[in-house]
Amino acid sequence: MARDPDIDVGIDDPAWSAALPDYESICRRAAVAAAAVRSEPQEAAEIALMLTGDAAVRDLNRTYRHMDKATNVLSFPGDADATPAGHPRMLGDVVLAYGTVSGEAEAQGKPLADHVTHLVVHGVLHLLGFDHEEDDEAAEMEGLEVRILAQLGIPDPYQEAAVIRHEAVER
After folding, report:
1. With helix as H, strand as E and coil as C, how does the chain read?
2. Ranges of residues in the chain whose predicted pLDDT is under 50
3. Which domains are present in the chain?
């Protein structure tokens, strides 16, 4: 039987709890659903999620990616070799920036909860080794995201984005 990972949800910006009072359950549900695609489902694992502000994400992005700007989500995969024997494997950390995420949700006409769910799924898939640097990788990762989100009752975020872009062009 597959084991759900232990999910630690931290909050570092009170705007999250004001805008999304059920942020913890939303994040946990998304992380567990995304982690279900693990190739080693029997392995005990942990994921840390941090909901913070744009300034903190900008600092992380500058330090670790050498990009001096905020972004919606950052993922930091754990080091499997650093996990002591008998302890759950730390899959890694996922960090979301409130201002960027809420601004995107508003601009795209999406409920904040749906956008957060998508970004947590996206971040956890990165922790599992998925990427979107190449077209084939992007297609695989987006396909997984769409399937996971559908299981959670959330519409295809890529289809919605295409509709929004199309509407913007027609205006």
Report:
1. CCCCCEEEEEECCHHHHHHCCCHHHHHHHHHHHHHCCCCCCCCCEEEEEEEECHHHHHHHHHHHHCCCCCCCEEEEECCHHHCCCCCCEEEEEEEEEHHHHHHHHHHHCCCHHHHHHHHHHHHHHHHCCCCCCCHHHHHHHHHHHHHHHHHCCCCCHHHHHHHHHHHHHHC
2. 1, 162-171
3. 6-170 (3.40.390.30)
Q: pLDDT per residue over 17-41, tens digit each?
A: 999 999 999 999 999 999 998 866 5
Q: How far is CA 103 from the centre of its chain?
A: 16
Yes or no: say if 30 and 117 are a contact pair by the CB < 8 Å rule: yes
Residue 164 CB burial class (10 angstroms; 0-12, 13-18, ≥19)? middle
Distance CA 22, CA 132 (A): 29
Residue 125: CB partners within 8 Å, gap ≥ 6? 34, 37, 141, 144, 145
